[in-house]
Amino acid sequence: MEKAVIILSGGMDSTTLLYDIINQGYETYALSINYGQKHSKELECAAKTCQKLNVPHKIIDLSVLGKELLCNNALTSEKIEIPHGNYNEGNMKLTVVPNRNMILLSLAIGYAITLGAKKVFYAAHAGDHAIYPDCRHEFIEALKKAVSLADWESIKLEAPYLTLDKGDIAIKGKELGVDYSLTWSCYEGSDKACGMCGTCRERMEAFKKAKITDPLGYKD
Amino acid sequence: MEKAVIILSGGMDSTTLLYDIINQGYETYALSINYGQKHSKELECAAKTCQKLNVPHKIIDLSVLGKELLCNNALTSEKIEIPHGNYNEGNMKLTVVPNRNMILLSLAIGYAITLGAKKVFYAAHAGDHAIYPDCRHEFIEALKKAVSLADWESIKLEAPYLTLDKGDIAIKGKELGVDYSLTWSCYEGSDKACGMCGTCRERMEAFKKAKITDPLGYKD
């Protein structure tokens, strides 16, 4: 079996990808990073999914990053509120965590080299690029090139959902039997998802497109 | 004044570069990462140099990385001894920390975006490439490209010592008046440098080339 590392946030995209690569036969190692997000609901979901699927899982606490280096955004700063609205609205830029993807991927590559895995998967998708600079195709292509040179033996960065939107991912998840009750998307950490932030809205549309019912409850 | 971030290990290369960019007029922010090195002598030197030069300095404790993700090497694992000998010897590969440069650089880029700095400096040099895959020109060129796309406004990765060897760096440091008593190179963390490991040997040759006396004492 070929070893692979996956970056697992505990949201619906990376959880679907986890099911997907297990289904493809990879010996899978999941990595979740606490970079100082305001809440840990996603990470708890990631842990439950890995337990359910019997996948080795590391959660690494780098919460100091959100406090010291990656502040000034709504996901890590207590002083900035999560904006409500769709992703195309200006204020959603507050949810950009500086250079998050490169940081997470560089850690995953380091872990892969330690494990002797030659592939690292992550679930960037077509809906992401609008406001996140580090979800752009050009960025990912450049990073793939760098990653291929990071060790003497080439490591491959795999982003198979790059041309899919979140609805397509939900359709895939439906086929794969993903347990979406063990995923969390909302930027807020309340008991129920807010239904108002960009990621809630996108998730609701995705479930509608896939014609499945979201097992998570939303606030009224 | 233009803002810049520098990755400062506390070794002689990055310390020289720090003096160099201050001399060039940058408003400089130094970043040091504890990734789980066996000793913190370099980081203590980094702190003293920044205090001396009145440079804002962050030391971020990510020592969990060495324990959890980046093990199996002599710099972070208690189980693997620091090899003695020159860098061109096979056993020196034990000192490769997987993907270290990409990890450090990705964090520095995130910090630069938070600060509004457009340049990140690091002191990779020509002597490094022989055993470290992530000191190769091709790797750094690919990473520069990715970094330039990591934010909406382009960030520039600067590695001005890439064509210099450690002796050239020491010559530069002599001109700049670098206080090399506040730098540490040895992979071991004893009171005196071991004089036996790859980095000690390279340092001794560098001082010889620059015709300066190393203020650090070595074991007999």
Number of domains of chain A: 1
CATH superfamily of chain A: HUPs
Radius of gyration of chain A (CA) equals: 16 Å
Strand content of chain A: 5-15%
Name the chain pair with the biggest interface and residue counts per chain: A-B, 41 and 41 residues
The total beta strand count of chain A reads 5
Total of DSSP H or I helical runs spanning 4+ residues of chain A: 7
Reported for the largest beta sheet of chain A, the result is: 5 strands, parallel
Q: What's the CATH first level of chain A?
A: Alpha Beta
Multimeric status of the protein: homodimer
What does this structure look like?
The structure is a homodimer of 220-residue chains. With 220 residues, chain A is α/β, with parallel strands linked by helices. Chain A has one domain (3-210): Rossmann fold (3-Layer(aba) Sandwich), CATH 3.40.50.620. Chain A contains seven helices and five strands. Chain A has helices at residues 12-23, 41-53, 64-68, 100-115, 137-148, 166-176, 198-210, and strands at 3-7, 27-34, 57-61, 119-121, 156-158. A five-stranded parallel sheet of chain A has the order 3-2-1-4-5, sandwiched between helices. In chain A, helix 6 packs across helix 7.
